[in-house]
Amino acid sequence: MRLLCAAGICWTLPNSFLGLVVGVVCMALGARPQWRRRDLALVFRHVPWRGSGGGAITLGNVILYTGSELDTPCLTYAHRAGQCRELPVSLADHERAHVYQYMVLGPLFLPLYALCGGVSVRNPFERAADRYAQSGRGWWPLNM
After folding, report:
1. From start to end of the chain, where are the E strands?
2. How far is CA 56 from CA 3, 52, 75, 143, in A?
3. Which of 36, 102, 135, 142 has an alpha carbon 20 to 30 Å from 92's alpha carbon atom?
4. pTM of structure
């Protein structure tokens, strides 16, 4: 298992490098790094970008987060789109699912993510991340 994990981390290094560059630049504006072993990710907290509070983006094994604590509740994409009513999920769990997805797809993740609808409820990567955050299972998109 450790060997597969190491291979996934290496496979997604180009994405992680991009996240690291953005995170380091944001450190000059107040962002703070924190290694989260459980998430297999370096998290930059207090990343200053506009938009609603608590937003996060994952790039490989790097998570960029506008808030102070990644273990915060967030609404699922389906709930926000008005498709159903669901309890909030952990943002950390949602982003961890994306870390796993990156580790499988490596440099292919971003183009596939964009082709699947980007940041929207239509995107199977987002639906899978919500499913994982709800149940702890199913981080891989079933219907791509």
Report:
1. 32-36, 41-45, 56-59, 62-65, 73-74, 89-90
2. 28, 10, 13, 24
3. 142
4. 0.94
